[in-house]
Amino acid sequence: MRKTNQVIIAFFLIPIVILSVLNIVSPVQVKSEEENRLLAQWPTFSLTSLFSGQYTMDIESYISDQFPFRQFLVNIYTHAVSALQSPFQGDVSIVVRPNTDIGIGEILESDITPATESWPDTHATTNRIAPSTESSGVDKALPSLDPSPAQSSPSPVPTQAPTPTPTTQPTPTDANIVAAEDKVITYSAVIIIKDRAMELYSFRSTRVERYITLIEKLHKLLPETRIIDLIAPTSVEFYAPDKYHSNRNSQENAIAHVYDRLPADIVKVDAYNRLKQHHQEYLYFRTDHHWTARGAYQAYFAFCESVGFDAVPLDAMKSGTIAGGFVGSLYRYTNNPILKNNPDFVEYFMPIVESKGMAYQSDSMTGGYQIRAVYPQVKSNNKYMAFIGGDHPLAHFQTGLENNRSIVVIKESFGNALVPYLTNHYRNVFVIDPRTFKGSLSDFVRKHAIDDVLITNYAFSISSDEWVNGFQRIIG
Amino acid sequence: MVFSSLIFIYAFLPLCLLITYLVRSHQAKNIVLLLFSLFFYAWGEPVWVVLMILTGLFIYGTGLKIDQHRGTPRSKAYLILAIVGALASLIFFKYAGFLLENLNVLFNWHLPIPRFNLPIGISFYTFQILTYAIDLYRGHAQLATSAANLLLYEALFPQLIAGPIVRYADIAEQINHRQVTPAGFSDGIGRFLIGLAKKVLIANMAGELVAQTLGSHLFDLGVLDAWLGILAYSIQIYFDFSGYSDMAIGLGQMFGFQFKENFNYPFIAVSVTDFWRRWHISLGTFFRDYVYIPMGGSRKRQTFNLFVVWFLTGLWHGASWNFILWGLYFFILFFLERKAFSRLLAHLPVMFGRLYASICVFMSWVLFYFTDLDDIATMFKLMFGFSGQEILGQRSEWLILNNLPFLIIALLASTPVFAYLGRRIHDKMTKNRQHGALAVVTISRNLFLLFFSTATLVGSSYNPFLYFRF
Questions:
Q1: Cβ B215–A185 below 8 Å, yes or no?
Q2: Could you tell me the pLDDT band of residue A158, with boundaries at 50, 70 and 90?
Q3: Per the domain annotation, does A411 fall within a domain?
Q4: Pairwise CB contact (< 8 Å): A169 & B216
Q5: Structure ipTM over 0.90, yes or no
Q6: Same domain for B162 and B224?
């Protein structure tokens, strides 16, 4: 008996001790590719952080972020949860996470490879017109935001989990801790059907009220300017069973609601039906929440119909595929291995009109860096960066077109894939991301003699506080 | 620090076991345990650890006086001093804000409300240390042999943060004489891991579901979501709390301490009275022995005594009116059962009593979860269809389908079914002298629980940052 008990004890203590020792001796990881974030490092000691409790919390983050076989254990956990959820869900699985803003903005890393073969001229041209601090052109466009030595980076990169993990959760036995908290946490949910992940949508009219009011206000501020609104649906609308996109989950209804409410002389682009007609094509990524260049093209086509342009046919544009598979945000969200094993690919279509692109931090348009409408090669994992290089506060594409027409596009990341097509029609294409742009939109429109203001969104962002707050800020 | 954390399992516990094993003398073992316990507490409460130590020393000092003046009125005076002192600190830290807020409302004053965080576990260790002073006065307990030993009792990490409320008289002997046996240690491991799994695999998962339902705006929910949310909360609170008690009891065994049971399958209770004999037992008996009986118990003013006990039980859980309501809700049920229900229930099939008790307890969690009284009203309206909201909310269908297997397992685990099966296997194998096979079964269970709890603790730190903003 004594012997058996000792064996039982050994089989408890040995694994614990092995993992403890491994935890200490294994090399410290800096970044998790899977999660696309920096991992927590051993915190620096200070009396303030000790007494505030921050120091010990940081150590706990360090231990869980640096735990031996971390990704393996994470995968076991994900598999176990999805196995537990599957019996009544069939081949549909739904992953829920708190407070994850899938559409949060991202700027191009410095690893875009300059095009050499497929786009010979622009590189040189850009250098001529835009005196950049870097002689090598696009590379190192953002020196202050250099990602490599992660710890010293001053940028607001989360070095630790922003939400408390159960590791640090108090037990509810001091009851007032677990009881309802003041803060309402919003949950997003992603449904996976076979190898396609889609964010679930739900509509409440009160959540789009501000968006509508702001466009009305902008219209009043700029009575001479043509204002165009384009709201695009996401993939769940076309590739999920009806119940996930009907009634209150219908983006079609949501878009119709907004369009109905907007003043009559605002141009409303019906991208929805165009995308619906073509939904058999590769319009949306399966592992990322964005549309593909083909999806954006359908919206561009609808835009041209609405404003009276002749859309450039897709096959008239030089096209290609970006090397390397693309596994996007929805994979990271769900950590689902099926998505990882079935990566997307990113196609691009070069505008027939060449353009010079610059991106700026503010409306003063000084100290900019060079960008392109389309990058035929992207080293970053996020291949969607191929389109205008991500979310810049302000971007400007100048073409050689003689028409003297100017447009400003107010957008989030969905708009990035749309912008290149617009350079086929305007002398100046300005692109504003209201989340980071600082300045007044109406001043900007007057100063640059803008003809068209295009507000383009996907259905989720019209009720996203972050985006709408930014939109409100630039309208004033 | 909490037990259900990687740092506890993979750093604190092995170190603490190693060092207490290495030091030889009993006194040294106690000192090591005390230091580790203070570190354990200071990890999460680096400032208020001082308060806990001061409370312990204060009670130790008054205890000396209680003992010294035994038999004279001064002994009682020192007891009163001890009680007033300990409760004053509890009231100041836990209830000052609540009291002032209510005074401000009542008299239209504008007193500033102090805003500091509640020191972790203060409700537990205050009650616990009071049992020493009271039992010492009553002659139920001996004078502590040293201040360090009394501090060890107060701060002993297995039961420090979330109970059970261990009485000094129950473990005084073990502080000075205890033995760790392989059998006790291996039992302790099993108990600890079961508690860990209850907390990590069930309570935390249920907590996610609670957040996904009750955590959103109530007007966004369907009727079914509200019921689902309260069901998930019932599961969360039982598994969280009883899991913590299991871990405490298991850890106690690993260090040679025997703590009393704190839960006994409360969800199969046949009446509300029965529920409270099975739920947080150490709190119920504390109020019985240190409040109800001294007030006169059933001999005089019984209804008033019960009212006070339930009022305090509610208030003990938190400084907010909803907890008081929660306590008084049980007072009413308790009272009705005494007067009439219990005789009625005795004549009905036992399943009826279970159903009745489950419904009563289930509803009580609405009062427990929502600290805002308006939310409670809204929630009841929603649950019973008076708010005009749909039966099925936007996400009800897949929330239920997603979580159904989990809910079934959790509800089964809240009954004695698994424990019964475990005992059957154990008894059968022991009878057939299959000790080796039994060890294999035990080890497999332990490794399974440890592995999945660890994977879940690590897995829930998976925190994808969907876009990097370099």
A1: yes
A2: very low
A3: yes
A4: no
A5: no
A6: no
